[in-house]
Amino acid sequence: MTRLNEKVRQEKGDIPPLKMRVGIHTGPVVVGTLGNDLRVEFKAVGDTVNLASRMESLAEPGTTYVSDDTFKLTEGLFRFEALGEKEIKGKEKPLKVYQVIAPSSRRTRFDVSAERGLTPFVGRERELELLLDGFERSKEGRGQAISIISDAGIGKSRLLYEFRKAVTNQGYGSLPHVGEA
Ligand SMILES: Nc1ncnc2c1ncn2[C@@H]1O[C@H](COP(=O)(O)OP(=O)(O)OP(=O)(O)O)[C@@H](O)[C@H]1O
Ligand SMILES: [Mg+2]
Prior knowledge:
Layout: H1 2-12, E1 22-24, E2 30-35, E3 40-45, H2 47-58, E4 64-67, H3 68-74, E5 78-86, E6 95-103, H4 109-116, H5 125-139, H6 156-172
Parallel strand pairs: 1-4
Antiparallel strand pairs: 2-3, 4-6, 5-6
Helix pairs in contact: 5-6
Bound molecules: adenosine-5'-triphosphate and magnesium ion.
């Protein structure tokens, strides 16, 4: 918005700047086409959408406010300012509200959970074995490409992390070229 306003000012002269505010909440929604014969819209509805909209009305122009649920899921990936508890229309109790300040320098969700402390690694012997076999073969000059595909949160990053650790323990140093795409 800052860039747009700058451009508009250069082209059209001194007119009031356009400001935008954003509210985010996370939770289940009902999604579908709603409406009657005359007008049908693809919409998300429910309490989650409602609270997101409340976050948006609370936000000062030019800012992004999030609920406590969204904060908990993204903590560590962004820097936040806690704004305390706010009265929300339609809610019995005041709710915690946070303002998003900036992305944090930590890269992925996995980096964040690794920083908090990882749970002991369980299972995945076969998958790890496959990766280590590939590593052995590549040491013999036969290049290997392996795709790891799964639903979100199943353990792709963790598997890579354990692979890197196993290889490092074998004394090959760290592997800067083993990365997540
Ligand atoms: N085999 C395992 N044993 C113990 N913890 C695990 C295992 N696999 C994954 N986890 C833990 O589960 C969480 C999610 O795993 P991870 O981040 O690796 O998933 P992902 O598939 O990379 O997710 P995304 O698709 O979001 O990138 C992490 O905290 C990780 O440490
Ligand atoms: Mg991952």
